[in-house]
Amino acid sequence: MKFNINYGSATDVGKVKEHNTDAVIEFPITNGHVFVVCDGHDGVEYGGALAAKITTEEIKRYFQNRTYANLANALPNAISYANYCVYNQSLKEHRFNGIGATAAILIVQNDEAYYASAGNSRIYLCKGGEIAQITRDHVENGEVKVLIGKEKNIKFSVCKNPIQIDGDEVFMLCTDGLTDQVSENDIYGIVSNKDMSAEFKTAQLIEKANAAGGKDNTSVQVVDFSTYVKKEPRVSIWKSVAIVSVLLLITVGIFEIYKSKVNNSGSKVQTEAVQSKTETAKAEKTAPEPAVSKAKEPAKVEVETNQPSQKQSEQTVANQQVDDNEYVVYMHKVEKGQNLYRIGLRYNVPLNMLEELNSNEATRLTIGASLKIPVRAIHIVESGETLSGIALAYNSSEANIKKANQLIEGQPLLAGQKLIIPLPKK
Question: Which of 227, 255, 283 is the last residue of a domain?
């Protein structure tokens, strides 16, 4: 599937600081595009702007020098290379000692999105009426612990699996100049607005940060996807009229030829018509009654692909109150293209809860791995039950149940079918 991609990229000094130590860059690669935002941190005597500039330029140099077959490996290598370049610069002059930069990097290629981060610059994903931070802040006690170039070796966060692009995603990269002053709800209100272009969303977010005081430099990139629709070429009205006129002339000509032939062979046609009528009448008397075909019964649709871990969770619960804090564990098998964020979105489970339940399995997500998913129950459908009735019994919603079970709109429920009832969204 092809997608349209619309993006905006901007940085602003803000209302308080004299200099802008942020840096942003975006550039095309083979079958894709790279987006980077950086927030420079000063060393002994300033130099934060230099660190941010080197980081963006060296990442661009790394990806534009050649085409990489595996972006999942190339992305961390690019960050390590940028760290090497900034660190070496910090050693050249005393005033640059200790400089560093945060970074948020998004690479879109074909229908996949790869991402990585260092420090507290962030990437958000807006999809399906929700917004979520998909990167992790490296901050302890208010201090940024991971900076590109601050030390010789660097530990940073990088995605284990790419996000599959469906065509309705909006990504936002930003420095803390935005997130420290603008709430997530206000960010969502702008980013999710389908009537704004990506460039206008970017400008609105920066304006929002400045209106809140503009205490820091603010850098934002918005990457907006939409499904590509092929437009059929339009045929002009006059061309349509000409085509219809030609077809009418051809039809009239054929009719006149046919009429002439009928007049010349009238008696022969009459005789053949009488014979044909007689034979038809005989055939109707001897023809057997048509067989009535039986409608085929609809095939059963198997929705459940992963087996629940607890037998007692497979119980029919109807018309009773359920404690929102109680849950059973459902084992989800990881498929290609899935990551922890998308899995949590499907089952209404926060990322930190998934990480706590699955520990190492959550941080090292691999295809075929089994993840523990907390759900309200596994409901076995009984004859005559409806999705709305089941949702009411569990104090859930039809939309959440459909999303958890990946039900198609209008798909009938079958007796004996197992339905995952997700936890209510907190």
Answer: 227
